[in-house]
Every structure is written in structure tokens, then in C-alpha cells.
Amino acid sequence: MNPNAKRLATGLLGLVVVHALWGLLRLPSRVAARRLSEIAQYREHGAVNYFLGATGKREDGGAAAVDWLLENSAPNAVVLWRGETKGAFELASGLLAPRWLVHRNHVSTAAREYRGRPLAGDARGIAVLVGAGERVELEFR
């Protein structure tokens, strides 16, 4: 092996070792501490407020809408939705499980159930979860 190539390989190996050691030294102080802080916030605020509420640096992503649906609809209910499916809607859909989310265009406006499951709503009408980017909102039809 060429002496220059051998020095280059040794230097690269040294850099890899230094990089690995640096990562291992940071793991307990930075990564684990940050993760423990996130777990504490999750436990303190609950799942909905942790992901969609105005906690810490987060803007309100529509936690009140998801909380309302969880409190006012049965687990086998169908929640109608419209709007964007990216952003806060992705989180809301997981938090609402096992409720089904069905696009409002697939259900007639006169319907009170969908495939034998009740539609979420109250005296104001049938609830519709609206995906609006980084937040979700609730409206009634």
C-alpha cells in the first residue's frame, strides 16, 4: 500500500473514532435529558394537548376540537372530515382512533349514520373535522 494512502486511511479511521466517541459522550447529557423532558410534558399535558395543544413552543393545533370529539362521540363513531390531510390532521386522525374518519362528500347531508356506525355530532348538527395545515378545527353541518 502506498504510504500516502496508508496515512489517509489512518486519518479517516481516527476521525470516525473521534466522531463516535463524541456522539457517545453527548448521548446521556443531551439526548436522554431531552427525551425525559418530552416524556414529562406528555404525561403532564396528555396526548391531545402534547401533540396539538399550545404547550411550550407549540402553537394551538386544534386540541379543543379533538378533545370535543373524544368526549362527545362513541369509539365506534364516524367523524366526517374535509380539508388538508397533512400537518395537524395526521396527528388528529391517530388521536381519534378507533373512530373512522370519512370524507364528508361520501356521506349524504341527511344521514345520521355511516355503514351502521353513528356520525359524531350533537344538537348543532353533524361534526366535521377540518384540516387546515398546522391546525384542525371543528364545524357542524
Helices and strands, with pairings:
Elements: H1 3-52, H2 63-72, E1 78-83, H3 88-95, E2 100-103, E3 113-114, E4 117-118, E5 121-122, E6 125-132, E7 135-140
Parallel strand pairs: 1-2, 1-6
Antiparallel strand pairs: 3-4, 5-6, 6-7
Helix pairs in contact: 1-2, 1-3
Walk me through this protein's architecture.
By secondary structure, this protein is α/β, with parallel strands linked by helices. It has a domain at about 65-140. It has helices at about 5-50, 65-70, 90-95, and strands spanning about 80-85, 100-105, 115, 115-120, 120, 125-130, 135-140. The strands form two sheets. Strands 1, 2, 5, 6 and 7 form a five-stranded mixed beta sheet that branches. A two-stranded antiparallel ribbon has the order 3-4. Strand 1 (about 80-85), helix 3 and strand 2 form a beta-alpha-beta unit. The protein starts with a helix and ends with a strand.
